[in-house]
Amino acid sequence: MQWTINNRVYQAEPDIRTSLLDLLREHLGLTGSKKGCDHGQCGACTILVNGRRVLGCLTLAVMHQDDAITTIEGLGTADAPHPLQAAFVTHDAYQCGYCTPGQICSAVGMLDEVARGWPSHASDDLTAPALSHAEIAERMSGNICRCAAYPNIVDAIAETAGLPGEDRQSRKDLAA
Amino acid sequence: MRPFDYARAGSVDAAVAAGAAGGRFIAGGTNLLDLMKIEVETPARLVDISRLPLDRIEVREDGGLSIGALVPNSDLAADRCVVEGHPALSRALLAGASGQLRNKATVGGNLLQRTRCYYFYDTATACNKREPSAGCSALGGYNRIMAVLGWSEQCIATHPSDMAVALRALDAVVVTLTPAGETRRVPIAEFHRLPGDTPHIETVLEPGELITAVELPPPVAGARQTYRKVRDRASYAFALISVAAVVRVEAGRIAHAALALGGVAHKPWRVAEAEALLIGEAPSPALFAASADRLLKGAEGHGDNDFKIILARRTILATLRELTT
Fold first, then answer.
1. CA A27 to chain centre
2. In 10 A of CB B262, how many CB atoms?
3. Tens of pLDDT along B49-81?
4. Do B100 and A139 touch (CB under 8 A)?
5. Contact assignment for A63 to B50 by CB distance below 8 Å
6. Torsional sign, CA A42, A174, B95, B81
7. B83 vs A59, A126, A142: nearest CB
8. Chain B residues with CB-CB distance to A141 below 8 A
9. Would the pTM of this model clear 0.95, i.e. be above it?
10. Residue B142 — pLDDT band, cuts 50, 70, 90?
């Protein structure tokens, strides 16, 4: 069997039951995508298939031989990071870092959805959704961070999307 | 996961033939693979239908929509015709799952997803839905998320779909292709079954029958629509209670009303008499209360989920208030 991942062709003969996530990690050595729950509840395995964010754990590798797959390894490197990777560093948007590859792949797909005008549950007007910190939080709700770096994750994505910083004092007032 | 054979169907006809021969359809796979991992689902053969040409949304001659069974949930929610003409459907889809799951999950698969009853998932407990005649561990068990309407002594599970609740209020029709080669049109009201004595049979589909599309009638002119969902956290959680509603007020009186409830039963719950009470009347708290009481008539909880009856009533009232003011 054959897959196109990060613009490179890979071949392997895994068991037919192999998830796309297990193909990446266990057969191809692409361990950037992480296995959290393996049941579609945490988002750590988020990758891009034909540019759309999906969960690698909930799809079979055999079903994606004709697709263009992008993982965190294909987005940037330590020397040339993707803007979102740089923003996550700037904003300290992680603690343990285990959810980070999924967060970043998810954010790449999410910002593309916004660019296409897709609304979200947080959109007052379905026909003209405007990105905001609340929109980012809703649209990223499929990515769990057990270290709870959420405020910094939202800030990193907001900055990358060109949103002004949020007033932290008003957020504290709300919490109080 | 149990071993299985895998084949990709090259055409709709080939898919139905493979289904009739015992194959299990897989498209998005987000629910089926999850259940296969824990061996609640153990298909011997998967028929991959994900590349079939059933992924278009088309405007029909009457102004309604024909939605291909393989349209992903996210594409459907963002479709211009849906956003503008059937916003309750967009809202319901966007209230469900996560962005990643909506990108993969399809319309047909959403309708066929299985319950999230804890005991259905836990193979160490008894479940009539998993294994007919095994018993129901939810009855007398932890039942906070279970049904309050339409349940039986064999099963108190709920249907988890948000989309199906909106489709119920919008009078959708499920279009299928049978193994005999016939096209069948099943009103959404008749598509899902109540559990009765056979909770393992969840829809009226025959073995091998394939959902090819979902049709929506033209939007009710001048009506307002919404989908209101109440859940344990703000996002990415199943409904405790949800209400899909379409209401038109004309000269101060209600001229059209459709109300469907989610999170309460084995299928989306709708009662014609509850809507008939509203027609021709001026909106008022007392009128809404009478309608809600009719919609919830016969509701009975199991202890942990008694709150759902009160919550459903309040959610209905809030939804009707929102759409009539």
1. 22
2. 35
3. 999 999 999 999 999 999 999 999 999 999 999
4. no
5. yes
6. negative
7. A126
8. 98-99, 234-236
9. yes
10. very high
